[in-house]
Amino acid sequence: MKIDFDGVQAFVLVAELGGFNKAAEQLHITQTALTRRIQKLEAYLGLKLLDRTTRRVDLTAVGKEFLPKARHIVFEMTAAVERLKDMSQNARGNFTLACIPSMTSHVLPEVIRRYASQYPDNRIRLLDGASNEVREAVLNGQAELGIAVAGDKHPDLLETVLFADPLVFLCHTPHPLQHHKTVSWRDMRDAELIGVSSFMATRVFMDYQLAKRGIRLHGNYEVQHHATAVNLVAAGVGSAILPSSTFKTGDRPNVLKIPLVQPSVKRKVVLLQRQRGGLSPAAEAFHMLLRGMSFKI
């Protein structure tokens, strides 16, 4: 059923203002155009709503019964449109973000703090998961935006590189390598390493880069998450190779972050969104903020 909103709005104004002249002025249309709207609505309903003479306009019995309902329709529609305008102009609303857990250590909290200061009434629902899970969440509409490690391109996803995230060496002091300004991969052959799961995008990326250069490292321990590896390093269990973004110098006492070289291996962190459909105002504001930030990794 198609509701003639223009006709309903015209009817309500004529009834409330008591005449066509004032109603036409408020709608910024001619009286002729206003009359056509009323006639079109009455024709659609098959009922007469107004009795009009040269001196006055009266509501018919049906018109009196319909007026409260018509007022409600106009009020609800006007309020809904104003809410949408407010969302568009002030980027208000809620959205869902899918993100790899490593970004929640330092990068994402800083972005969210800035976003919250600009849009304090907005709400973000966060889905954390592996890179492939982030991609799936964006593809199937569970999340409007995703932050993941660059991988195989998908035709339905738009990827924007946010920053390059170098792999670094984390160790607990005292350690034989603690005074080195940089550490090479070969320096770590005898280190007790804590590795991340082979299913993690970082591990897959690292193994591929090292295999190209004929370098193999042995890890004594394996964990599922970067945060667990950091905890074990802090406890003195071993050392780890992790993305730089997962750890900031000073986070844990007696834990050092040393750049890895020969080769320097970096993963690309990307922002994901669907190719089609566009973003809600709240998600678009977050998208613009994220792309405009300079990340110190």
From TrEMBL:
Cell inner membrane listed as a keyword: no
Family designation: Belongs to the LysR transcriptional regulatory family.
Keywords: DNA-binding, Transcription, Transcription regulation
Domain HTH lysR-type positions: 3-60
Domain of life (superkingdom): Bacteria
Record Gene3D superfamilies: 3.40.190.290, Winged helix-like DNA-binding domain superfamily/Winged helix DNA-binding domain
SUPFAM superfamilies documented for this protein: Periplasmic binding protein-like II, Winged helix' DNA-binding domain
Cross-referenced PANTHER family: HTH-TYPE TRANSCRIPTIONAL REGULATOR YBHD, LYSR FAMILY TRANSCRIPTIONAL REGULATOR
Record flagged with keyword Nucleotidyltransferase: no
InterPro entries documented for this protein: HTH-type_LysR_regulators, LysR_HTH_N, LysR_subst-bd, WH-like_DNA-bd_sf, WH_DNA-bd_sf
Annotated protein name in UniProt: LysR family transcriptional regulator
